[in-house]
Amino acid sequence: MSNLERDVHTDRVKRLEEHAKEVRIRILDMIYKAQSGHPGSALSAADILTALYFDIMNIDPSNPHWKERDRFVLSKGHGCPVLYACLALRNYFPLHELDTLRKFESILQGHPVKQKTPGVDMTTGSLGHGLSIGLGMALDGKLAGKDYFTYVLIGDGELDEGQNWEAAATASKYQLNHLVAIIDINRLQMDGFTDEVMPKYSIADKFRAFNWEVLEMDGHDMTDIVLTLEKVRLAKRNKPVCIAADTVKGKGVSYMENVRVWHGKVPNEQEFRSAMLELKGENR
Amino acid sequence: MKLQQAVKPTRQSFSERMVEYGSINTDFAVFEADIGYSTYTYLFGKKFPKRYFNMGIAESNMVSAAAGMAAEGRTVVVSSYGVFLSMRAAEAVRTYVCYPNLNVKFLSSHGGVTAAIDGVTHQATEDIAIMTTFPNMKVLCPADSPSAMKLLDVALETPGPVFVRLMRDPLFDVYSEEHEFCIGGSHILVEGNDVTIIAYGDMVVQALNAAQELGKLGISAEVIDMYSQKPIDKETLLKSIKKTGAVIVVENHQKKNGLGYAVPHFLAKVDECVPFAHLGLDDVFAESGNYYQVIDKYGISSRCITEEVQRLMKRKG
Hints:
The complex is a heterodimer of chains A (284) and B (317). Chain A is an alpha/beta fold. Chain A has 11 helices and 7 strands. Chain A has helices at residues 3-8, 11-34, 39-44, 46-56, 80-89, 130-143, 163-173, 194-197, 203-209, 222-234, 269-280; strands at 71-74, 150-155, 179-185, 188-189, 192-193, 213-218, 241-246. Chain A starts with a helix and ends with a helix. Chain B has 317 residues and is an alpha/beta fold. In chain B, 42% of the residues lie in helices and 19% in strands. Chain B has helices at residues 10-24, 36-39, 42-47, 59-71, 82-88, 90-98, 127-133, 145-157, 203-216, 234-244, 259-269, 291-297, 302-316, and strands at residues 4-5, 29-32, 52-54, 76-81, 104-109, 138-140, 162-165, 172-173, 187-190, 195-199, 221-225, 228-230, 247-254, 276-281. In chain B, helix 11 links the parallel strand 13 (247-254) and strand 14. Chains A and B meet through helix 6 and helix 7 of A and helix 4 and helix 6 of B.
């Protein structure tokens, strides 16, 4: 066991698992209050974002525009409740703002908006642009001689958009070794399983073909997530990194897991209560 | 007004000024989509290789990446042909550049049918309509090399997105170096009393030639170079039509949603109803061919302007 592995096996992982639980509760709560949103998509990325925002990323919530900070782009913008929950829990803005999700004049728009929400590094929502945006940010870092990392979280469904592969080629050309694309592979997109809507084949092989370094991880195993993300930061390389994360859409709420409709459906009162009980661990 | 045959197209002058400006502003970057020798951005790349990025034949990725870089505070000039920037990359321009109001400047070559010889696939004849519709976007189109060079400075010094429509072929030099340009500006190139001719880009020269012909027919035409299509110079426009009492807009663009829609829309709002005519592509695609033959066939040559103004004079009574 390496030092790193010993390190993550301690309280660090336990602490992050507790945060992830809180993030999931906030996701459900804000979507229920908004009566609108994408619970399945947000839940699938909850553990990854928790690791990034509560541990891995070099950020300062009191100074969201800090030049040296790590950048984060949520390419699958519809999953934003998970981002909003992380930002609020990290004090980028007051927790009560979460109750205004998708409401009139809220700072929390239906999809992330840079100029409205403290901590949102870039506007996203139209799928397939996030990797291009992230590579622009990473290119700027390289040009400015800064060593921050740019993380882009991409849904497996949105890989249907060809622009991802334009971005993959460009990031590779400019050897953007501080650009990290995390693919949230939950195998479901809006109309059904990815294999039925548009087969993805091997996402890892595709990125390898574009000369990216590819790592694979279990997107819900906090130890694996932290180890993988740490490995990315420590190793030296001259190419961008793709992390193919194996995930479950709706993870944490059993009736939502791997069920298509929960991409963008709001639970009714009974469903909401049962989800909250499950997330709080009170019915186990 | 005496016109000098130009040796350079505006795409070249704009890029040459960009190289000069690269020493004044040492921060901005230039993104190119594999047509750097056509847009002349390769000159910038030669002088400032670290700030020049050839993003390949992938315009939408290029614009999204420019948005990412501009989100970090750096100005990015994005170069391509108008037909690709305004359509292939339209969503990235709207959602990721205009919505966050980022400092991305568009060097958009081959405006209108000036890419005549290349055919419809390379003619940008809807770009003004598309770009002027996006909130926060400013749209400029210089008529000649001196104004193209001045507008490079204006574009880089104006906060937020700016789209600059440039031409493929050398035309005529209308301006000297003393003229100044700004967002929302225009220039009255010929003063007249009977009709106001509003043009931009390559149509300015056609308008000037028409004004000369009309003079011979006893019609005194005022010619305005409305080089800023968004915002438009309302003050100059209003003053001119109050004097002349008739207006014609000529544009190398689809009539629909071009400057010829913005002008009467504004005039109607201020209750200034004067006889109005509009020349442009009349809901049709043009074709390949010699530039002068194409603009004449599609109704925007000086001959067409002269004829239309005569009809307009009859309507004016």
